[in-house]
Known about the structure:
The chain has helices at 9-20, 28-35, 43-60, 74-86, 100-113, 123-132, 138-142, 156-163; strands at residues 23-25, 65-67. It is mainly alpha-helical. The protein has a single domain (9-163), classed as Rossmann fold (3-Layer(aba) Sandwich). It has a two-stranded parallel ribbon with strand order 1-2.
Amino acid sequence: MVGLPGVGKTTxxxxxxxxxxxxxxxxxxxxxxxxxxSDADGKRDVLExxxxxxxxxxxxxxxxxxxxxxxxxxxxxxxxxxxxxxxxSDCRIEYLNTDHDTQLARIRQRLAETPEQTYAMSxxxxxxxxxxxxxxxxxxxxxxxxxxxxxxxTTWSQWAAVRWPSLPDTYGGSSxxx
Length: 178
């Protein structure tokens, strides 16, 4: 699942979970109960790494998995596409987007209806996040091969292990495709 907060990712992820009998991994459903916060002193990246490790292990065993992370950066998405291919699994990006006003309304509604499942987000934060977000390219959405690994890394597995510190660099292989 790719998109910013409030665009409907988790709602769609839950639909896919039911339709496909998938394992759905949504970091907020772990972060908030465990730490009471969305990031909690940088623990989100560590938690996401373990969730990705779980997702990859499940995919290796032929299970459907929905990674409901947001994945704002192209490199994050490229790494995941590469990693899922490395374990012999297909990876499909589902990108959700909405206009700014609708996004803010959904965020406010979620906070009002289920405050224990979310956290407050300011208009300024949401605007800043919209600027940081890298929309998926057509090649990504079509399932084309990931681009070459960023400079300084030999594989996408290595890049991912740095991005998500608890995800082991155990996938080796070629820098562009396993």
